[in-house]
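writing this on my phone so excuse typos. first protein, seq and then structure
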Amino acid sequence: MPAGRLAFLRPFLFVLLMALLVPVMVRGINNLSDARYCAGMGADSLTFRLDPAFADYLTPEAMQELSGWVAGVQLIGEFDTLPVAEINALVQQCGLQAVLLHRRRPADELAQLTVPALKLTSWIPDMMPEDVDLRFREQAPHYQGFVLATPPFPLPNAAAMLRLTEQARTYTIWLGAGFAPDTLRTLADTVRPAGIVLQGGDEIKPGLRDFDEMEAVFEQLETE
């Protein structure tokens, strides 16, 4: 396997390099190096921040330019406050297969979406387990799954992880790699989330990107 930081130099050799234990979602793709590298390493989906409410949002034209270089991955748009009608227009324009919503929306708005929606969800350390269950149970009919991308600090204790494991058996829950930075294989085997979420990064300069950290995550999830 090529060194991570050199992988983007081989644009015509991006076949599926790895079989992974669980699907991988890479959020916030904003450059061609990330798009091609993650697709080539076997990522299941890439997200693009398309809502002007985000300071680092991409224009539809920029997103289309990036996605035109990759194949075999699900394209997901991230949205915060943009109205549903405008989200649907971007879904069609950019060829999105799903959306990742940052804010909870009424059921009637969600019903108007033309593609499935995932919900970005925060870990609330002091929230009672029954309240967490209620939150998932109320929202589950309207979302394809929940994305807990950012782990709390400190990390959840053993009891909290056991509860999360039980919830992952009932609901479709994606977890950020930071929930188990050094033991992702164990997390994948025990909690069995729907997938692992990584965060894309910025290029050092156009065409130059250090993939060492991301490569280490993909290696942990590679099937043996």
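second protein below, same order as before
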Amino acid sequence: MTSYERWSLAASFGTLLVSVVAFGALAWQLLMLARSTAQDHDRRRKQATMEYLTAIIDRRRQLYEEGIPDERNHAAVSALISRSLTGDASATKLITSYLTAFNYLGVGARTDAFDRAVIDQAWGGLIIAVRANYGPWLEAQRQNHGEPRLYEDLQWLADAMTPRQSPTRADGVLPPQGQSATA
């Protein structure tokens, strides 16, 4: 082997080593880009969730003013449901508007557009209470319309929430949100 061949062989191995190092650096950069993109997607999904929850707060306030009772007041919700089921169109419209906002929240969570952990942390108990108290109305509407999938995303979302124990007042009614059981 001549000196020229040895230098050519050394240069070839050097070039190969530089190429392997460059490929490794490129692979590392792609990995970091993928992680950064995933983190950004997660942050944006959480932000979108919080924005929708804020919008629902405004909508809930409007509906409270129009006559929707606190979702944890079982007696008042039952009375509203009774009015709706006996043909009161305004009660039906209130309930439909109210539950549709939560159903859309369920659609967003189910399709991964919204973050379920954020929803659970912020409103898990509320969503469970909504589904529990409005369940009879939901079932009646499914039967009346022959549509078993009506509000299924609200149902799915409530099932995905983590139940928490809440103290009840002596009369067995959950206290309004933000108040203690002794109030």
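The chain has five helices and no strands. thats all i got for now
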